[in-house]
Amino acid sequence: MQTQEILPTWHGSLNLVFEQRHDRTALIQEQVQAPLKVLRPFYPEGSKICHSVILHTAGGLVGGDRNDLNFHLKPNAQALITTASASKVYRSNGLQARQNIQIKVDTNACLEFLPQETIVFNSAIYRQDLRVELAPGASWISWEITRFGRSARGERFLQGEWRSHTEVWQQGIPLWIDRQWLPGTAEIINSPHGLARQPVVASLAWIGQPVSPEIVQQARSLFPHPSFSGVTRLTSGLLCRYRGNSTTEAKSWFMDVWQLLRLSFLARNRCIPRVWQI
Q1: How many other CB atoms are there within 10 angstroms of residue 52's CB atom?
Q2: DSSP label at residue 270
Q3: DSSP label at 7?
């Protein structure tokens, strides 16, 4: 009987600490283990906001791979973290690929964690766990955009499994807990309660301050297809959902909502990271 070859696996890790020093947010600690890498910080908005870009040098995750990412923003630090390119989760050899993200945002600090989309190949087995600890006065905005299958090639997510678990806490109180699970089956892919034959799902969350009904309505009005989207007020923030066929469409809407939230709560315009324009 022929056995399947088990390839070597990667265990990447990344630990970043940001601190405000003399009206400038500096990356004061950087611990990296391959295949993860962080590019040199840059300041397209001035010294107060540090932009950092994460690079996965292996190109993507396979079964058995694991990434551990830790971000800590000290009081008053302001940082935007993104990824250099779309993430890929390849067909599994039977093992689960995992990504664990731990975020701590101290008093009056703000983290914008805006990774580029994730492409989950057919037969991939993937789980992401993200936990955020917010101090009083801290804020966090993030999005997750996922494409199931290489749909441009006609591939559908008919085998495998995807899980995404997110928790945001403040002083022992849960502000938002979100658990999603999607098994790769034709029934789930086609069901109106699943993907409804759409290959892309996405979520954007802003947590840190209460959001008015007017901002919720503005966020809804920014997207022209209400049947493909939803906007909900959270206890201390806002949640946007997308289900459709285009990562570009999802990202375009999220960028407009990001602009709305930045103007409303941070008193600044959005600044598009340069790696998104390559």
Answers
A1: 20
A2: -
A3: -
